Amino acid sequence: MTSEESFTEPEVNPSHPPATPRTSHPVTMREVAEGAGVSVATVSLVVNNKKDARIGAGTRKRVLDTIRELGYRPNALAKNLVSGSSRFIGLVADAIATTPFAGQIIHGAQDEAWKHGFVLLVANTEGNEPAEKDAISMMLEHKVRGILYSTWFHRPAEIPTALHETDFVLVNCFSPDSDALAVVPDEVHGGREATDILVRKGHRRIAFINATIPAPAKDGRLQGYREALESAGIAFDPNLVFDAFPDQEGGYGAVEELLKRDVTAVFCYNDRMAMGLYDGLKQRGLSIPEDMAVVGFDNQEVIAAHMRPPLSTVALPHYELGAAGVRLLLGVDEPAGGNVVKIECPPVERDSVGTNILTGPQLRWSSTT
Amino acid sequence: MTSEESFTEPEVNPSHPPATPRTSHPVTMREVAEGAGVSVATVSLVVNNKKDARIGAGTRKRVLDTIRELGYRPNALAKNLVSGSSRFIGLVADAIATTPFAGQIIHGAQDEAWKHGFVLLVANTEGNEPAEKDAISMMLEHKVRGILYSTWFHRPAEIPTALHETDFVLVNCFSPDSDALAVVPDEVHGGREATDILVRKGHRRIAFINATIPAPAKDGRLQGYREALESAGIAFDPNLVFDAFPDQEGGYGAVEELLKRDVTAVFCYNDRMAMGLYDGLKQRGLSIPEDMAVVGFDNQEVIAAHMRPPLSTVALPHYELGAAGVRLLLGVDEPAGGNVVKIECPPVERDSVGTNILTGPQLRWSSTT
DNA sequence: TCAATCTGCTAAAACGCTTGATCAAAAATG
DNA sequence: CATTTTTGATCAAGCGTTTTAGCAGATTGA
Question: Do A49 and B116 count as a contact with CB atoms less than 8 A apart?
């Protein structure tokens, strides 16, 4: 919808192919009306099953039959035009595909939108400014009900000005200096959950390998880690926390540092890091979880569920982020307290954390923990 | 768009929220016309920069200024209505998120659609029949230019009847008993490429661990493997081909069988299998690629690029699939020969295949191969 | 100088649908 | 039986555009 359609760049005209429809003319309401021997108004009333419309049983049937016979389909475009607003929700993403994550956001948004009778209009911008502007323009021109502006990783974001022309909510990002509605994962809670998995199994000396790069996740997860330790009455030892690049290589490289620290368990900033860590650990003949219990973060399905042993981790709630975004946009959910709603990161326990190291394989964690 | 909107189920009426637009009235063309002291027709001509319209420079400027001033945006709904067809392309997917793959299809389709001035309308059906029907209905009602029907793994598919009401192309799937347009990965070519990576490095005894489950990929990759061997003058040894479940566990479990076969290299049905295989190999103290060269298939980014060593593999061209689907739909590409167009699977060489085992590290493969 | 042509712009019909106002006939009421 | 109410359905205006036909005035040609 860049050029021909828009008055912003009248000079460009890359002659898009005409949006030629199929050959045969689509059946209209008028044709149905004629076929059934009634007025279009009547057809409309029947089609929409208007509650307070008075249509005789016979007429109704005749109309319905004709509809079936002719294969009539309402024209949503016309419908939208008269109603003044469409049933579209726009989703603009900075990376639709770079990561499986974005997919889940789309998925959640799509499902939820659908549930409320809305349809998703997607656009990805690859983080590129003009593309973003075009995408938003196009959505505004289609009179979307609102726009979900999403990023593929949790971060602060600048709000494109055009967004203000409609309702919008930020998904997986937030605006530090505005009170825009936003949905983000609850990193602190996630960090707590991850650490708790370990704590519940009796671990006391738990390392946390944080990311080297600044992000809300970095601060949040660390805080969660600290909170979990505190609730468990374990003193925070800054020496057990260090940074590594948040990918496989980083995890692999962190093993040496980790082993210096004499811990029984480690909480990795993310699953990829854990994956690399596995390699390093195994290479040294150490086994998981016996020699080292490991938990990750993100629950990247392809990885986490299929490592050896399968990785305990905490899930980034991307699906929920998308869904909650839509609910917020439509006003189905009220943003309880503040304009940023945080979605919990549920723990996903697999086998990289063994049985309770204190009580052994028999007992599950006691109720006193 | 299930109920209220559709005459199919007049009884249901779950009172969707009204599609209430923002508060302030959007600026229309009429208002611009009044503001600029011209007719709507003139505004229209200016906005669309109609080539053969005769508009005075002064008037044009006045209109443009008013547009800017008022913040006018064309209403795509109205535009579409009069033109009789929208600039939407529908994408219905059976799994938008279960896999990172689907994301790439969307991405490719989106980019390509955009390039031609079209917008993507997405719906995921989770393979569920009624959802699929609803999705297609909704798209037809929005008078989409056409529909891309995509599956998350390459397979035969049944064409929902409603699809025939518009132009459509199958993406990543095909219809065995119809001449519907389809775009699929070229599995045979992929199998050949994968095997060639190994052959080029001098490997002669190359195992192929195929999938246990039937699929076009299973047959195609095997054929590609055989073709590659043949071109290299290597006799096909059925004993070097066996099956395993196509995931990490399957790969891990296949190691024993593999080692019985006295091969120097193995081509795994997919990356996940290769990932498990790595584990099994390492556990036995074998190293990659020295003791065993490995190539995978799929190029699952999260996995392949970050294993130790990084995995050589062949990429499933999901992005291209989506893009080619759109081109086919719009008639930009002609389906050369047959109704199923096959997209190549490009090899991605990383480190799981070493240097030439015959000539050593110095020489690259000679031109005589 | 008068017709022919061109220039700049507008009127108005359409696109397919919704909906409030109407209206005739049938049914209920007194 | 006359009047009111209800029932069943239609009229027509309008949603925001595009586009064809056309009109007045200016310019040109002969």
Answer: no
Interface with chain B: mutation pick from A3, A27, A77, highest number of B CBs within 10 Å = A77
β B119-124/A119-124 pair status: antiparallel
Mark the nucleotides of strand D covered by protein, meaning any atom under 7 Å from a CB: 7-12, 14-20
Find all residues with CB under 8 Å of A183, minimum gap 6, and list them: A169, A170, A171, A172, A321, A324, A325, A328, A340, A341, A342, A343
Min Cα separation B33/chain A (Å): 15
From chain B, the residues in CB contact with A70 under 8 A are none
Question: In chain B, whose CA is at the least distance from the CA of A131?
Answer: B114
CA A138 – CA B120 distance, rounded (Å): 11
Q: Would you call A20 and B85 a contact, using CB atoms and an 8 Å cutoff?
A: yes
| Per-residue CA distances from B332 to A21, B110, B145, B329 (Å) | 15, 15, 13, 8
Catalogue the E-assigned strands of chain A. 88-93, 119-124, 146-156, 168-174, 182-185, 206-211, 241-244, 265-268, 293-295, 313-314, 340-343, 347-348
Q: Is B237 helix (H, G, I), strand (E, B) or coil?
A: coil
Taking the C-alpha atoms of residue A232 and residue A240, their distance in angstroms, rounded to an integer, is 16
- Helix, strand, coil proportions of chain B in percent (round to 5)? 40, 15, 45
Q: Are B191 and B221 in contact (CB under 8 A)?
A: yes
Single-letter amino acid code for the residue at B203: H
Partner-chain contact B121 A120, CB within 8 Å = yes
Whole-angstrom Cα distance, residue B191 to residue B184?
14
- B41 CA → D22 C1’, Å: 14
The residues close to strand C, meaning Cβ under 7 A, are A 26, 28-30, 40-41, 44-45, 47-48, 50, 72, 74-75, 78-79, 81-83; B 37-42, 45, 53-56, 58-60, 78, 81-82, 84
- Rounded to two decimals, what is the model's pTM? 0.87
Say if residues B236 and B270 touch (Cβ distance below 8 Å).
no
CA atoms of B153 and B176, how far apart (whole Å)? 16
Q: How far is the CA of B51 from the C1' of C5 (A)?
A: 20
Q: What tokens does B132 get?
A: 């699929």
Among candidates A77, A87, A121 on the partner chain, residue whose Cβ is nearest the Cβ of B1: A87
What Å value separates CA A56 and C1' D7? Answer: 9
Pairwise CA distance, residues A118 & B213, whole Å: 38
Q: Using one digit for the tens of pLDDT, what is the confidence trace for A92-140? A: 998 866 676 778 898 899 999 999 989 999 998 888 899 999 999 999 9
Q: Per-residue confidence at B359, pLDDT binned at 50, 70, 90?
A: low
What is the C-alpha to C-alpha distance for residues A313 and A196, in angstroms, rounded to an integer?
Answer: 11
DSSP letter assigned to residue B161: G
pLDDT at B18: 52
Residue-wise pLDDT tens digits, A22-80: 556 789 999 999 999 999 999 999 999 998 888 999 999 999 999 999 999 999 999 99
Give yes or no for a contact between A138 and A1, defined as CB atoms under 8 angstroms apart.
Answer: yes
**How near does any CA of chain B get to the CA of A172, in Å?**
17
Q: Is the dihedral of CA A326, A330, A334, A338 positive or negative?
A: positive
Lowest mean pLDDT among A204-213, A252-261, A298-307, B136-145: A298-307
B206: phi then psi, degrees, rounded to nearest 5: -120, 120
